[in-house]
Amino acid sequence: MRPEHVGPTRKPMPLWLFTSTRWTAPRPVSAFVIEHRDGVVLFDTGQDRTSVTDPRYFPGRLDRLVNSRIARFDIPPDQTLTAGLIRLGYRLGDVETAVISHLHPDHIGGLPLLAHASIVVSRDEWAGLERRRPEARGLYRKHIDLPGLRWNRIGYEPLAEPRLEPFSHGYDLFGDRSVLLLPTLGHTPGSLSMLVRRPGKASLLLVGDLTYDEALLASGQPSGMCDRKQTRVTMQQVNKLRAALRDLVILPSHDPGAAERLAAAM
């Protein structure tokens, strides 16, 4: 990724995208596995390895240029979604539900493998796919709206739980308040995060691309690829939630420190 992509930066995205000459150190493309008594859940599905082996993965010359400027991916065969699940003792068929934080390519890459599962995304995020020229916003219908997928496009309902304020609305994935989906807008208009509450252990907040670095979230500094005004509002909400849930572990999808924090919380 570009340093300006991670942030903070004052440069508008088109400027840094086409002028930056630097890359960060490698950063992860994370997919998380959640065990629930009602089934195995994925939070995001990673980047499709085909995107680095097939030059036609992105449909046009401009799309290919833009994506080559945004990030450079290295996805060896042992780093695919299937391989990662096997290392953890699962098969693809074990996955009952996949929750998608947002519809960018590095979060939907495993969709072709998940026709057997329920795929959850926010209605607002899906609406971005329906608007004109979704590719300009990094949404590629041919990799998202695949035949046979079972989409569950969710809205949010009142949570009525003071400890979760300022998140007044969310989606209770299993009806038992253990896994809640929260609207965390900013990186995209329909981005969501997942709050996982575990008896006797620290709660986990999987925030997708709200930030690329937990420290930048804590200081309220947006990345270089977001609606900055909306992201600052959402960061304030998340930081208030962190203050209310003092053991909360925050796990951004591309944060190099996320795996260590998750391991420490287990």
UniProtKB/TrEMBL annotation:
Cofactor(s) named in the record: Zn(2+)
Keywords: Hydrolase, Metal-binding, Zinc
One of the Pfam families matching this protein, by short name: Lactamase_B
SMART domains assigned: Lactamase_B (SM00849)
GO molecular function list: hydrolase activity; metal ion binding
InterPro entries: MBL_superfamily_lactonases (IPR051013), Metallo-B-lactamas (IPR001279), RibonucZ/Hydroxyglut_hydro (IPR036866)
Residues of the Metallo-beta-lactamase domain: 28-254
Assigned protein family: Belongs to the metallo-beta-lactamase superfamily.
Record's protein name: N-acyl homoserine lactonase family protein
